[in-house]
Amino acid sequence: MGATATTETKVWGGGNEPMGASYGKMMMWFFIVSDALTFSGFLAAYGFSRFKFIETWPLPDEVFTHFPFMHGVTAPMYYVALMTFILIFSSVTMVLAVDAGHQMKQRKVAVYMLLTIFGGLIFVGSQAWEWKNFIKGEYGAIETKGGSLLQFVNDKGERVKLEEFVVQLPEERDVLKRSNGTWFLQESSTPTTFSVSEVQTAFKVHPELRVRTERIFQDTDADRKDARLEKGLNKKKHKEVLTRDASQKMMDNAFVVVEGANLYRNEYGSKLFADFFFFITGFHGFHVFSGVVINIIIFFNVLLGTYEKRRSYEMVEKVGLYWHFVDLVWVFVFTFFYLV
Amino acid sequence: MAHDAHDNSANIKRIWSVFAYMSVITIVEVAFGITKPDFLHSNTFLGMNLLNWIFIILTIVKAYYIVWAFMHMEHEKASLRWSVVSSVVFLVLYLVFILLVEGDYIYGVFANSTIKWNF
C-alpha cells in the first residue's frame, strides 16, 4: 500500500493498489468472476430445460444410487456427499497452506499443498467412478416411437432390470458394415444386449410387469381419475406406473432399447438430463484437474524455495483462490444436480 | 477485520470452525435429501416447495463461508468485496430470472396448446 495515499485523488492516481490487492490477485478475481458467470450460464440453462420438462424430469435420488463396495445396495446421495466432504477438506488444507505461507513456513506450506493435491486427485477419481456408473446404467429402458421413455416395475412397484426378464432369442440381425453403407456409417453387431422384439416378447409372457413412464404423479383429482394409472402403485412425486393394458399399449410402440447413458439417449429419462450431466460435471471436473496441475507446479516451486527467495508466498494465495472457487462451484452443482 | 491478521491461532481456529459449520450443513442437506419429510416436500412457498428453499438457502450459506472465510473476502477492502460480489449476484439473479420464467412459459405452451414436441 502506498504510504502517500492520503486523499481520494491520490488513491486512484496510479502507482498504488486502490483495492488493497496486488495486480496478480486482482486478475485472479477477474478470472473468477468471469468463470462464475460461465458456470451460472450452464446451471441456469439446466434450470431452463428442467422447467420446460418439469413434469417428466428424472428424479436424481433414483439415478445416483451407487456406493463403492456396496453392490446392489440403494444408497442415494451418500457417495456424492462423500465427494463433497473430500473437496471441502481439500479447501481446508489449501487455506492452511496459505496461512502457513503468511508465516513463511516453507515445510508446512509444502505438506498442506501436497494434501490438497491428494484431495483433488481423489475427487477427480471419484467423479470418474460416478461417470462409469452413469454411463453403464443399471436397469435399462425402452424408448417409444414418440420419444418417451419406458422403465419396468413389477406388481409391487419395484424396479426390474431388463436382464431379469428378457431372454436372448436366436435371431438374425442385419449389421450395417462400412462396405454396404456410406463409408462413415457402421455399427457393432449388438448395439444393445437385447433387441426391441426380445423385450416385447418377454414383456408379453411376464404378466406381473408394468410400465413406468417419465411423468411424475402429482396426486391431483385428474391424476386419481386417470384410468391408465395402476391403482395402489402410484405415490405422490414418484414416476407414474401404468396398468397392464396401458403398459402393453405403450410397449407396442417400442422403438429402441436404451441401456445406460450417452449423448443421444439415456435410461434415466429426458435426453437433456444426461447431456447436462456430462457437460456440467465434466466442465467442473476439468477445472478440478487443471487446479491439481497448477497446484503441483506451485508445490514444486515451494520445494525449490522460489517463494522463500521472493520473501512472499502470494502465488500460493492466488492458486488458493482458484482452488476455493472450484469448491464453490461444486457446492452449487451438488445442490442443483443431486438435491433439488 | 477485528482480529489481527498475524494472530495465527485465531486464523487456524476460524478455518476449523468454518469446516465444522460446512460439514454440519452438508450432513443436514443429505439427511433432508434422503428422508424428504413430507410436510416440507409437499408444501410450497412462492411456487417452490419448502425442501428446495432449504437446500438453496443452505447452499448460499455454504457459498458465503467459502468466499468470506476461505477466499479471505472478509479481510479485503470493501471496494474489492462489493465489486466482485455485487456484480456476480446481480447478473446471476437476472439470468436465472429470465431463463426460468421462459422455461416455465414453454412448459405452458407444451401443456396447453396444440404444439407438442417441436424442439
Task: Give your account of this protein's structure.
The complex is a heterodimer of chains A (340) and B (119). Chain A is built from twelve helices and five strands. Chain A is of the alpha+beta class and 340 residues long. Chain A has two domains: 22-137 and 273-339, Cytochrome c oxidase, subunit III, four-helix bundle (Four Helix Bundle (Hemerythrin (Met), subunit A)), CATH 1.20.120.80; 142-170 and 182-259, no CATH class. In chain A, a hairpin with a 4-residue loop joins strand 1 (141-144) and strand 2 (149-153). In chain A, helix 4 packs antiparallel against helix 12. Chain A is elongated. With 119 residues, chain B is mostly helical. A two-stranded antiparallel sheet of chain B has the order 1-2. In chain B, strand 1 (44-45) and strand 2 (48-49) form a beta hairpin. In chain B, helix 1 packs antiparallel against helix 3 (50-70). The model of chain B is unreliable at 1-5 (pLDDT under 50). Chains A and B meet through helix 2, helix 4 and helix 12 of A and helix 1, helix 3 and helix 4 of B.
- Please, how many helices of chain A? 12
Helix percent of chain B reads over 70%
Give the CATH level 1 class of the largest domain in chain A. Mainly Alpha
Main sheet makeup of chain A = 5 strands, antiparallel
Structural class of chain A: alpha+beta
